[in-house]
Amino acid sequence: MHNYGGVTVNKGQRITTIEQLASNYAKSVKGYKLVNYYKGAFPIYRLSTEIILQRKKELGVIQEFCLKFIRAQAKTAKHLSNFMGLSGKVIESNLMELHQLDMINFNFATKEIRLTDKGIETLENNNFIVPERIDYTFLIDGITGEYQLNESLDKLDMVKNNSHVIPFNIVKPAIDDINIRSIKNTIEENRRLNNSSYLDGDLLNISKIEKIEKRYRKFNVLVFANEKGDIELQVYDKNKRCMNYESILIQMLDKKLKVIPIVEKVEDIDNNKNSIYDEYFKEAQENKEEVNELKKQIQVLEESVEENSDLDVQTEEEFISKTMLIEELQEELLKAKEMLKKKPQILDTYEHRPILLKALKEAQTQVVIVSPWIKKDATDYELRKEIKNAMDRNVKVVICYGITNEIEDNVKYALRPLEELKKEAKIGKNLSLIKLGNTHEKVLVCDKTFVVITSFNWLSFKGDPKRGFRQETGTLNEDQEVANMMLKNLQKRIDESGLKCNIII
Q1: What does the alpha-carbon distance between residue 259 and residue 81 come to, in Å, rounded to a whole number?
Q2: Section 252-257 average pLDDT
């Protein structure tokens, strides 16, 4: 386990979502708060080029004997033809090639031949160096300028709808801008990884650039800010940090380049919190320090139980002593968890999506989601899969939506796959889609185990792209009475609207 600014992270922990990443590293920068996280499409240039390699080649049999006989005082092509028993045409063809390779001087008029220094050297080594043009494709990172091996990357159309596209920091390279040493490094790495003879030889030059394409590679980006407004960025490839990008992105940010997505001015940014939200948020704020201490205590107790469970004992006395200690620790742990349940807890933006998925995965009877807006980005495949899995377990899923009585086209589009789930023969009855209208509440209720009252729009905001420094906060209550109260209030609203849906209370 490693501690980063108060957050404990398991070394090598497998991170599968950006929300997990945000949760793990939310407190990793001392004096800074996590204000945003998003998937970034980082730009890459893909260059298709023709390069010139100096390659070693072995002599052909006829050429080798030609050189040997010339060294042995053969003076003309006719002499070679007689010595080797080959036609004059074959001999002259090989002599012309040797002449072009600068291994002999061949007088085409007199047919006289003379061995050069290169020819002598070639005979001694049984090979010679010749330039050869081949096709070679490599990448130049659009942020750092680093030269990289070619790989499969996304086009702009593949990333622009689900990632924030970061602008190029490096201008489109011309042939004179290409760094030969850097290409040599990529060639050496390619040889090492692929064990291929295709790139054998020494790079002389790039003869031409055939094509330059713009491509994109996806990384996760965490944005931190302090009270003065200073920004720090962390870039991750899954859970591997890519520090080479971070300082450059800050420099780009200083130049007013759109490194961080801007908050959209959309209708669903609603600061009209109701009295229930205010009540529990105030309580959660007051209990914040106590909640944090309880969480630390629970973590310490869990680690102690685990450590003592793994200790070997040699005697019966040691066994009894350790058993009693573990029981005491487990009792303390249970008390701490029960105390935590009674305290409303503040949820940050990045904690909402995981708890929504958790509710759908763990619910035994019912999940109720109240979200004024529904949009396709938030009702993605991952969410629909968990809704369906819950329905398959015979869990009732109730979705209440509608800020107005009108249903916009984007809402209809987002509703369509949910309505398809409702049509499924065996499980469709387990999904209720209730258009309340004039709905400002954002609520999540899982069975009667917990309820979240929040400013976070569950089904229109994932907390990632195109949202800038958007902070959504909520309160988590593990109080059955609070869950009951919310469910009863909601059922009353449904009944008053003349709609049919029986929530499990």
Answers
A1: 73
A2: 91
